[in-house]
Design brief:
Layout (H helix, E strand, L loop, with lengths): L1 E6 L3 H14 L2 E6 L2 H10 L4 E5 L9 H10 L8 E4 L3 H9 L3 E4 L7 H7 L9
Helix pairs in contact: 2-3
């Protein structure tokens, strides 16, 4: 089964993202709230995609720090990562740091977002 790690979302957004993703993909979703949790989860489990909030909800730390650590570690450098942000400059910075183009919460349930997700996740009969 495909696996997705969602990093740094508040409870409401985590539930919303999970609902939208699960209705379109047969997937197991994991959650990490903080930097250390995210890195450890990525080292322990092979994910098909990791989605990182621009600012981690619990401590307001930068999601880019998680991205930089994942992309600099040989064990996780090839795992696809997206930053979740509506800000274009955040998307550009993430792509420059090795992430794939992500999306914002405002466009979560749109064909454009599903096209981005389908680069890494396969639709399956649910």
């Amino acid at each position: 089964m495909q696996k997705l790690l969602i990093v740094g979302q508040c409870d409401f957004d985590y539930q919303r993202i999970s609902f939208v993703v699960k209705k379109n993909y047969n997937i197991e979703i994991h959650r990490a709230d903080l930097f250390d949790d995210a890195i450890q989860s990525a080292l322990d489990t092979q994910y098909d995609l990791i989605m990182i909030n621009r600012l981690l909800d619990i401590d307001r730390s930068e999601g880019m720090a998680v991205l930089h650590e994942l992309k600099s570690n040989p064990q996780t450098e090839h795992t696809p990562v997206m930053i979740i942000s509506d800000y274009q400059e955040a998307q550009e910075a993430a792509v420059a740091a090795g992430a794939s183009l992500g999306f914002g919460k405002a466009t979560l349930d749109t064909p454009q977002t599903f096209a981005l997700l389908s680069n890494f996740l396969m639709k399956e009969n649910i």
